Amino acid sequence: MRFFPLFALLALTACTDTATGTTAAALRGGAQQAYFAGYPERLFFAAAATCNEPGQTVVRPNRDEVRCESLPTPQAAAGLILEHNGTVEDLPRYVFAFRGAQSGAGYVVTADTHIRVPQRDGGVRRLRLRDPRLEAELREILMIAGGRPVQTK
């Protein structure tokens, strides 16, 4: 994924802290949405196929979600753990996710990026970056895959 270096660099300096993983929280944090006339198999396949760098893992918890999770550098991981009350038992991850939900005859897909920092108490803190360049790249990926933008407030 070509934007991970930019994401990693900016994420440590301009994060917003959200404790939930809801679509509403993601949209407030810069996630983008698009409508697909049918099931977006091509998009999900491409997202998984491009998650092939060292330290990256494809997570597909169900048919409608694909995540590419990347380990940060040791220095970045240490900083995230210290700054956000994380744990060394479960390291932080940069997450690039696509989640689909059926809507009428088609699907609405949410593309989201965040840093997941597992907490000492067992919870998870998600750090989201509001960056116009990153948001434009997410929109572009969704449009190239055949989606139509969904206007969000």
Show the helix and strand layout.
Elements: H1 4-11, E1 15-18, H2 23-28, E2 32-36, H3 41-49, E3 56-62, E4 65-70, H4 74-83, E5 93-103, E6 106-118, E7 124-129, H5 132-144, E8 148-149
Antiparallel strand pairs: 1-7, 2-6, 2-8, 3-4, 4-5, 5-6, 6-7
Fold and architecture overview:
There is one protein chain. With 153 residues, the protein is of the alpha+beta class. The chain is 30% helix and 35% strand. The protein has five helices and eight strands. Residues 1-20 have low confidence and may be disordered.
The CATH C-level class name = Alpha Beta
Largest sheet: 8 strands, antiparallel
Number of helices: 5
The number of distinct structural domains comes to: 1
Provide the gyration radius in Å.
15 Å
Label the structural class: alpha+beta
Shape: globular
Please give the share of residues in helix. Answer: 25-40%
Give the low-confidence spans. 1-20
> What is the end-to-end distance?
27 Å
**SSE series:** HEHEHEEHEEEHE
CATH architecture, by name, is 2-Layer Sandwich
Mean pLDDT value: 85
In short:
With 153 residues, the protein is of the alpha+beta class. The chain is built from 5 helices and 8 strands.
Keywords summarizing the entry:
alpha+beta, 8-stranded antiparallel sheet, 5 helices, about 35% strand, globular, disordered N terminus
